[in-house]
């Protein structure tokens, strides 16, 4: 039990490593990751926004996922890069609270969105003739609003309960950004309400979303198995393979970090796993969805051709 009541006004983020000789290497690695993430997700966002061939709900949600991934990584990586350049690891109390709120909000939305995308794939494969009718534009917009509100409510609750706690003598966050678990380890007050809030979020956002995703894929697999041709089965499964891979990585990391006994928590391991779903997964999303998706690749060719043609037309005559 911490007894020093000299409350902190700022925190020190220790990062992935405190070894000075690794700072330059980590800066280069995360700068490359951030550039790749921004480039890949911006391309997906652009394609799903302007190409008529991708004007279906599946690609609306894919574009939304790319938008979330851009915001998600921009919440953590730029500040990390700045700390490597400035050699300053401090963050103010208010900025830490803001980072936690935004990160938790975006993470909650993404979790809900992956569940919606699983349902979307079920409708596309199980009810193809009614797909456009069921997953209409109005439903997609309403779903976006609902999951944004639910994510915001979860973030408000967890941010409030985290920063209502007193932080006393120790202000060193053993992580690469302001995360809930490392902050709770620093608190010198009773964290019982925080544990209840986290458990509730785990059950509602974690377990229920996971269960709904599994149910969607049970129906999807059942439908695919009824397809007679091997080519038809392969084509149907290929539309889901990318989503299954991302969901597996995302839930695997979340279960490891949040859904386990408090006595088994290791912050050194947690921040490595956090990097998997907070940094690596957003980088892989556009690569996986584009490389495995013929329609996205065709849309990229069409948009590129259109842009090149427009540039040639706009070029001044010699």
Structural commentary:
The chain has 318 residues and is mainly alpha-helical. It has one domain: Rhopdopsin 7-helix transmembrane proteins, CATH 1.20.1070. It has helices at 23-50, 57-86, 93-126, 131-134, 137-163, 180-186, 192-225, 230-258, 267-291, 294-314; strands spanning 10-13, 90-92, 172-173. The chain has a 3-stranded mixed sheet. Helix 3 runs antiparallel to helix 8. The chain is globular, with a radius of gyration of 22 Å.
Summarize the SSE layout with pairings:
Layout: E1 10-13, H1 23-50, H2 57-86, E2 90-92, H3 93-126, H4 131-134, H5 137-163, E3 172-173, H6 180-186, H7 192-225, H8 230-258, H9 267-291, H10 294-314
Parallel strand pairs: 1-3
Antiparallel strand pairs: 1-2
How many helices? The count is: 10
Largest sheet: 3 strands, mixed
Quote the CATH topology.
Answer: Rhopdopsin 7-helix transmembrane proteins
Structural class category = mainly alpha
CATH architecture descriptor name: Up-down Bundle
Strand segment tally: 3
Q: What is the mean pLDDT?
A: 83
The CATH class turns out to be Mainly Alpha
The N- to C-terminal Cα distance equals 78 Å
Within CATH, the superfamily carries the name Rhodopsin 7-helix transmembrane proteins
Q: Give the SSE string.
A: EHHEHHHEHHHHH
| Order of strands in the sheet with most strands | 2-1-3
Shape: globular
